[in-house]
Design goal:
The chain has three helices and five strands. The chain has helices spanning 4-10, 54-74, 119-127, and strands at residues 17-20, 24-28, 38-42, 79-83, 97-102. Strands 1-2-3-5-4 form a five-stranded antiparallel β-sheet, with helices on one face. Bound molecules: adenosine monophosphate. Adenosine monophosphate binds next to loops.
């Protein structure tokens, strides 16, 4: 399979490793939104959350806490934004959780658009 993250896992493409255990690897994103932008990926190839079991997803959540605590100690951060694209907006089709360290006045905005006028309409659809 021609998957860039599988190639990182097999050692064919280098990465700046942050954390590794039996089921996941975390490494620095090559085009970071902020300093320390990190990706956590499962060692097994999964496309997105729909194709992963809850145990693995929970484990990735635990690892995100470990890395957040590590960066709180080592970097001058004021928070951590977690982003994870499934399908639309997902450039690499191997599950990855983005951990984006936040710095005072880092100027990073993930969402500009607000669609409050559609709340009633979408709520009707979801609950029908
Ligand atoms: P997404 O758009 O959510 O699929 O994000 C894919 C992310 O993978 C982007 O932030 C890329 O910068 C990152 N990326 C792609 N190739 C590499 C690589 N070889 N090493 C580290 N990060 C990568």
């Amino acid at each position: 399979m021609d998957c860039i993250f599988c190639k990182i896992l097999s050692g064919n493409i280098p990465c700046k490793k942050i954390y590794e255990d039996e089921s996941v690897l975390a490494f620095l994103d090559i085009t970071p939104h902020t300093a320390g932008h990190t990706l956590i990926i499962p060692k097994e190839h999964h496309t997105d959350i729909l194709d992963m079991d809850s145990e693995l997803l929970c484990h990735i959540g635990e690892v995100s806490k470990i890395i957040f605590n590590m960066y709180k100690e080592k970097l001058d951060i004021v928070g951590m934004t977690l982003v994870q694209n499934n399908g639309y907006g997902q450039e690499v089709k191997h599950y990855h959780l983005h951990l984006v360290p936040r710095y005072k006045k880092d100027g990073l905005f993930f969402c500009h658009k607000k669609v409050t006028e559609e709340i009633d309409e979408v709520y009707k659809k979801i609950t029908a």
